Structures are given as C-alpha cells and as structure tokens.
Predict the structure.
Amino acid sequence: MSRRCEQLASTLHRGVQTLLTRGLSDPRISGTITVTEVKVSPDLKVATVSVSIMPESAEKLTMHGLTSASRHIRHQVSDMLDLSRTPEIRFRLDRTIKEQAAIFRAISEATAGLKPLDEAGEEDGSADHDKTIEKSPEEPT
C-alpha cells in the first residue's frame, strides 16, 4: 500500500469512528461499533471499512443500516475532515476480535485446572513431602 493510501486510510479510520461514536439517526444501527481496519484501493476510489459490532445479535441489522447509510457517512466524513475527494465507503463485518476472545477464553479455561510450575519448569511439589533432592558434595578446587 502506498504512503498516500495509508494516510487516507488512517484519516478515514479516525473520521468514520468519530462519526459512529457520535451516533447516527438510523434505528437499525445499534450496539457498540468499532472500526477495526480501513483499506483504500490503489486508485483511492474505494475504502473498505472493517467493523466489529457488539452484541452479536445486532450484527445483521446494523450492517444493513451501515450499508444503507454509506453515502451519508461518506458525505459527513468528507465535511468533517475537509477532504476534496472522499472514496466510496464499503462496510465489511470483522469477527476477528470475537474469535480472538473465544480463543483466549478457551486457553484460560484449559489452564485453570493445571498445577502451577516452579522456577525449574517442574510441577510444584510443595504438597509432596516424600520427594527428596540429593545434592552431590562439592569438590574442592
């Protein structure tokens, strides 16, 4: 991605997130919407905005509302950021945050039942008193 594409993507990311945080009057758009990524085409004509929507039950209706309001959002962002040419905005649902949260939750649940390890990487034997460690006598130098 060229430097100009990256700059425009960053600017659009801030603008769209600000606009969505302020809220839109469309009743279909509900829940917490987070802009996770913005990609701009090399010709600077199309921007794909990836969004994460919470709760999951609001995803379908909110995506429909965002798609319908994309021209309005484009106009508002253009005015807010004072851009001479604003790319067409297309919204895409991003579920990676939810997938990562599910993975972390599964790891946390799996490790919750494990015994803690001591510094040597062995299971903590504090409950086992019958284990003895034999040390070899040190040789004089």
About this structure: The two ends are 64 Å apart (CA to CA). The chain has a mean pLDDT of 84. Strands lie at 32-40, 46-54, 88-93. The chain is about 40% helix and 15% strand.
